[in-house]
Structures are given as structure tokens and as C-alpha cells.
């Protein structure tokens, strides 16, 4: 059985497994999951670029999920980590590699460690060293960074401790009617050979890698292209959005997994992302709208559709991946790549550009919302006033203007090292299936092109190529040249210019050829680590309960409540950033069984919310709510709050608050 999430697992020795593999179980496979929740209060979220979106609590926790596979026949190992975060970042990747090598030596390194993310827009930022992404967090957040890396390492350790003979299979289906094409005007310019593989403008590819023991799936990674932006920029509770809800359904609902109590059979389910760049979950093409007008309900609906697609796949046996593992990675400077005619699409050598964001980027994605400014619009020539300013500005750099055309440049982010330009492209092989680890947000059509290219290179069907975004670093968007010319939001955010897609095609070809021909591939040039400015955002000086109050004291009592409705209690609280509660919970819902109070659920349940509010300079109020499930057992309940206060000397002291009893009817 795969390792559960109990705290003791992190202490397991990392001895190599000794059980023998067989023809039916040719690999050693393991999976693990660990809490990586960042600072939930007063820290800016990374994703929408909206400075007003700072955390006020928790809807559900962030987790890292790790999957390790070893091939005893060759000695090759592959390790994939999926984070509940907007994207993998260079800072997290570098530190994870450093710690893994420190622990296990040179068996693991740049090429066979792949770190990716689900792309939730509802999690704290400040974990990349590139300044553009830390604007909304006012700089670097060491506590959230450490939470991310510690969670990733704990998940990796648990996956390693869990290694045992098993097999890898793949199942696939087409999932439609979930996301909506949010950039139809740009996609209309694409050639038919790319768009013919899309359904209503979205890629329906739904593929699942299954880790099996004795023919039973015990862990999985699913890839499906959709933005986790069901929750809008107005949401300030940490959440893993629709992909996180799908993970919770498979792990908790189907396998009884509870990451706080340790219950369940240890099943690990990660929902990663793919060529998601132009697919919105908001099917009415307005933030928080579609399928309903309730953003939380939309999150659940879109997550359930993804979970149901995997459930349907698991009814049938998967297809064995075949034999052998491999991996390769290469860093390239995407600001200065001559794109050869084979990949440029023009029959000529073309060039990428110094990174620049266009004026249509500043408009934001109107379908998903965020930090876009009303004074900007999408499309070529949509911003004449700012275009005139840019015309004057870029007289200083006519080369950038010409290279980025028809983009109206707004921010020359490459010139000031505000974004990463030397980026990794990675391929992992599992049998005759290939995962393309790319650092950007590829549109649907771009993903189709990459599948075609790599299927031809490796001599496999396109269904054996998995396109994975948000991997190892972040490079903004990648559009087709035709989409770029339309300069919608996605084109304005394609930072390396019109031939970005061709540049990634070319580097993928380089990495793929080295793998196909079993040639050593040089790592390439990595960017130097930028300096960081630490943020004071979310830092706690001290907590005070208020005159005549005590920490944990109930200030609003819960009422008797019927199933299907919401019950709440309010407490005198303290700042939640004092203790991120990894492996724990800020709250418990408890039921009286006639003799004892028994645990029902905690803060990772999407039906609970932990909301924090600052009062005066150092006082806090905490509201805990529970949407009581329709199938909840009737009886006597209470709400328990677990907090930690900091005094003026910096000492942190835990406390517990308990609500009055209430009846669930």
C-alpha cells in the first residue's frame, strides 16, 4: 500500500527497497504527499497580479505530491513533484535539487527531477527570485518559500520510503464541455491542422499515469488543460481551486484519505496541468461566471468533472507504458535564439527577443479577471495613447520594437532582469510515453504542435506525448505566430516575441534528439541567482487579545443548524502566520458520540473555511464556518480552533478555543 500522510512517515529511513521486481511488476514505484501550505494571512497571492488579493485565511491546504519510479534493469530513476501552486519556480527547483543530492547523492540531479504545479491562482506568492512576480507580495517571503520546499522534500522522502515493486500504466479519454476558449479571436488565425484536434477551441486530451501494485492503481498523475481560475481575484482564502477539488474527491471521497487524521488507504492523486494558456473554466467568459454565478460552486463543478473523467478511466485497465526510463534537460537563453526555418514557420531564420510584456498584457484576461487595468485593451492598436508613449520610449531601442512587432511594448522586463530568460526544457520518458516539461503557458494549438513534433521524433503516436506546463520555472505565455499577431492578452504576455513557439520547438527537438540517440546533452547556461528583497508583508510583531479578552475565547456562538446549511463560530484569535500548522489544522469539527468528542473534519475540507481578520494593530478575530454535508450524522457538535499567539518577546504559545455545542438537525 502506498504511504499515507501520517507524520511518522517523514521519519522513515530512506533505505533502498530490497523486494524483487517481476515481469508483471518491472519497476519500483512510490508516491508521497505532504503539507506545503504557505502564509495564509496578509500575503499577496501569485497569479492574478492583483495587489488587493492578499490572504485572509484558508479554504483548503496546499500539498506537494511526489512520484518516484526506478528501473532496476538500467538503474535509471525519475522523480516528479506536483505542487499546489501557480507554477514551479527556479528558486524552489534549485533548493529541492540541492537537498535531494545532499541526501541521496548524484543519483538525482537536473535531468531526472521534474517539478511542476497545478496552477492555482489562490495561493501565497513571494517564492521566486524574479522581481516582476513579487510585486503583489512586496518582495520575497522566506516562510512561504521554506514551507514549499519543506513540503516538497517531505513528499519526496515519503515517496522514496514507499518504493516497492509495481508497474506503470496509462489511461486516456477525451474530456469536453469543461473549459471555454477565452481567446477565440486569436485562435481563429491558426492553421486547421492544429485547430482540428481541438474541440470548441479547447484541447480535450485527458491522460493519466497510474502507479500500480499487483494490478491495482495506488497513485496517479492526471493531465488536463484548464485554468484553475474558478475562484476569482476577489477570493482571499488560500485554495487549490478546481484541480485541488478534483484531488480531494479522488483521495478523500474515493479512498477515505484525511491528511490531518491519517485516515484512508494512502492513495495519492495529483492533477497537473497541460497546454492551458487559452482555456478558462469560466464558461460564460466572465470572472466567476460559469457554469453558475457562484465561484465556489463553479470550482466544485469543474473539479468534479475532472475527477469523474479519471474515475471513468480507472474502471478499465490501463495500458502498460513499456520498458525503460530516461530523462534529459537543457537550459537555453530564450531572449536570443536564432530559430531555424524548420521551426520558425516562415522558411527563414527568425529570432527571439529580449523579454517584453505588451500593452494587451496590461489589460489582463477579461474572462478570468485579475490585475488588468481598465485603461488598456486587447488587440493590435487598442491602446493609442499608450502606443504613442511606447513609440517615444522605444526609439531608444528600435531593435526591440522591430523584434517584438506587432506587439506594443509596455514593460521591457528582460532588460532589468525582472523575469527569467535562461530557461529549462525537460523531457522524461516512461516506457514509450514522453512528458514534455515546459516552463510556460502554452495555448491549445501550441500544445498540439509540440505533440506532433515529438511523436514524429520518437516514432510514437501523438497520444504518447504529454504536454506539461508550469514546469521547473515560469516563462509567461507561448502562442502560435498567428495568435501572437492578434495581440490578445496571451500574445501580449508572450515575452520572447512572435517566434517563441518555434524557439521552444527547436529546443525540444534538441533535447529529444539527445534522448533518442542516447547522447550526452550539455546542461546549458543557467541564469545567476538574482538578489531578493525580503517582504515585511504578513510579518507578525506580536498579538494582543484585547481588553478583558483571552485568546481562544468564543465571541459569536454557533446556532443549531440543519444539514445542507452553514454553521459558524467566532473566536478571539491570533495571527495564523505564527504557525502554518503543517500536518495539523487550524480547526476541527467534532461530534459527541455519547462518550467522547470525535474528529469529523479539519481545515483541508473544502466545506470548511478559516477566515482571519485584523482588529486594530495587533488584535485578531477568527471565524470558522462549516457547510454541513447533506449526509452528515445528526447530533451534537462543536467547533474547535487551534491558534498560536506571539508575545512582544517573540515567544509563540499555542492555545485552543472551543465553541458552544450546537445541534445538527
TrEMBL record:
Zn(2+) binds at residues 119, 227, 441, 477. Keywords: Hydrolase, Lipid metabolism, Metal-binding, Sphingolipid metabolism, Zinc. Its EC number is 3.5.1.23. Its cofactor is Zn(2+). The keyword Zinc applies. It holds the Pfam family Ceramidase_alk. Binds 1 zinc ion per subunit. Residues 518-664 form the Neutral/alkaline non-lysosomal ceramidase C-terminal domain. GO terms for molecular function: metal ion binding; N-acylsphingosine amidohydrolase activity. The keyword Amino-acid biosynthesis does not apply. This is Neutral ceramidase.
